[in-house]
């Protein structure tokens, strides 16, 4: 990917780096109003049957994800022109998604700045090891990594570990403004949840809010995971790494059915978002359609994305994700290559004239 091509790509997407106040307000209305209405309907349905309540909480969780996209755009400063408006709406929507605004804004900006860079992993991303790193690790680290990358742990326990526990505490080295925002978010969550328990009762509140939280956070982690974990993704060391190449080749186009595309705030156009985070979610599809080179981004569907659950390690030699079974094949291949090279070395040594 030449420098001139990268520059041209940025220029083609630049016209969509614009915030429309009307579009942002409409999105807030068609996201938050249905969410609150669904919560109320779920509460009313408790007196009829929990089998009605659960589907309503599942639909409501979709609107929590859509709320998180608003939160996400606020973190990038792309939802409103006003920084103050982004900070206020971002903090409030962070209460709904149980995510502290300033803390996540920092870690997510690090994710964008280092995505696909093998030398700068560890902040705002999902833990990933290369085959060489895994090979040289202790058995305890390997066991921990295998547990971490297990889908049951990643998507089953992950939502609780991240959204309920990790986000309640400040990261090491957080500045005062970020720390205070985390405290504010935690305080607002406690206040809102306490008020809801007083209004509807704690049993009813938990029966509704727990599945909404769990479905939304699980699907949120899945969306983040699958859009960077596909077979021919992009990872390079610092000296060969390119921001634009990482955006286009290391982020997938998750082609979802229109209903799911809408409920997930167009985040399936992840390659466009990584190329230009200043493009608000409601212009991502237009930017994609108007930029032919972006059509070459790796396209995954709901069906094909399920393969991502099998990928565990990044093989730097083949530049592909591999399964743990595939890792064994990588080791066997390297061992065979080593064995084949040794006879040649012996032959060269034997044929060399004595000095």
Description:
- The protein is mainly alpha-helical.
- Helices cover 65% and strands 3% of the residues.
- The protein contains 16 helices and 5 strands.
- It is globular.
- 35% of the residues are buried.
- The model has no long low-confidence stretch (mean pLDDT 93).
Shape label: globular
Radius of gyration: 23 Å
In percent, how much strand structure appears in the residues?
A: under 5%
> Whole-number average pLDDT?
93
Stretches where pLDDT is under 50 for at least 5 consecutive residues are none
Residue share in helices?
Answer: 55-70%
How many beta strands in the DSSP annotation?
A: 5
Helix and strand pattern = HHHHHEHHHHHHEHHHEHEEH
* Discrete helix count: 16
The largest sheet is: 3 strands, mixed
Strand order of the largest sheet: 1-4-5
Would you tell me the structural class of the helices and strands? mainly alpha
Q: Distance N terminus to C terminus?
A: 50 Å
Task: Furnish the topology, listing elements before pairings.
Layout lengths: L2 H11 L7 H25 L4 H26 L7 H14 L4 H14 L14 E2 H6 L2 H11 L1 H15 L10 H25 L1 H25 L16 H7 L3 E2 L3 H6 L6 H6 L8 H6 L9 E2 L1 H4 L7 E3 L4 E3 L1 H28 L4
Parallel strand pairs: 1-4, 2-3
Antiparallel strand pairs: 4-5
Keywords:
5 strands, three-stranded mixed beta sheet, 16 helices, mainly alpha, 355 residues, two-stranded parallel sheet
């Amino acid at each position: 990917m030449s420098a001139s091509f990268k520059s041209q790509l940025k220029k083609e997407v630049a016209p969509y780096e614009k915030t429309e106040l009307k579009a942002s307000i409409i999105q807030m209305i068609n996201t938050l109003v249905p969410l609150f209405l669904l919560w109320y309907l779920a509460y009313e349905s408790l007196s009829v049957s929990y089998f009605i309540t659960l589907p309503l909480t599942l639909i409501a969780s979709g609107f929590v994800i859509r709320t998180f996209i608003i939160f996400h755009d606020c973190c990038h400063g792309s939802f409103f022109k006003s920084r103050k408006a982004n900070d206020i709406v971002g903090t409030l929507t962070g209460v709904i998604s149980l995510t502290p605004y300033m803390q996540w804004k920092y870690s997510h900006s690090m994710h964008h700045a280092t995505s696909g860079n093998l030398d700068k992993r560890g902040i705002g991303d999902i833990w990933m090891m290369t085959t060489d790193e895994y090979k040289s690790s202790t058995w305890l680290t390997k066991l921990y990594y295998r547990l971490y990358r297990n889908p049951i742990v990643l998507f089953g326990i992950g939502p609780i570990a991240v959204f309920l526990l990790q986000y309640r505490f400040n990261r090491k080295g957080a500045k005062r403004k970020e720390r205070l925002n985390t405290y504010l978010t935690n305080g607002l969550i406690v206040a809102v949840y306490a008020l809801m328990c007083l209004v509807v009762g704690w049993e009813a509140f938990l029966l509704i809010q727990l599945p909404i939280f769990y479905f939304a956070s699980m699907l949120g982690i899945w969306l983040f995971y699958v859009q960077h974990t596909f077979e021919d993704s992009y990872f390079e060391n610092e000296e060969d790494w390119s921001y634009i190449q990482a955006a286009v080749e290391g982020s997938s186009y998750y082609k979802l059915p229109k209903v799911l595309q809408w409920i997930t705030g167009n985040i399936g156009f992840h390659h466009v978002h990584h190329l230009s985070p200043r493009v608000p979610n409601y212009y991502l599809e237009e930017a994609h359609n108007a930029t032919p080179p972006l059509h070459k981004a790796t396209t995954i569907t709901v069906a094909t994305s399920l393969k991502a659950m099998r990928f565990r390690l990044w093989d730097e030699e083949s530049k592909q994700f591999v399964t743990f079974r595939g890792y064994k094949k990588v080791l066997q291949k390297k061992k065979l290559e080593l064995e084949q090279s040794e006879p040649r070395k012996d032959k060269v040594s034997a044929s060399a004239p004595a000095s």
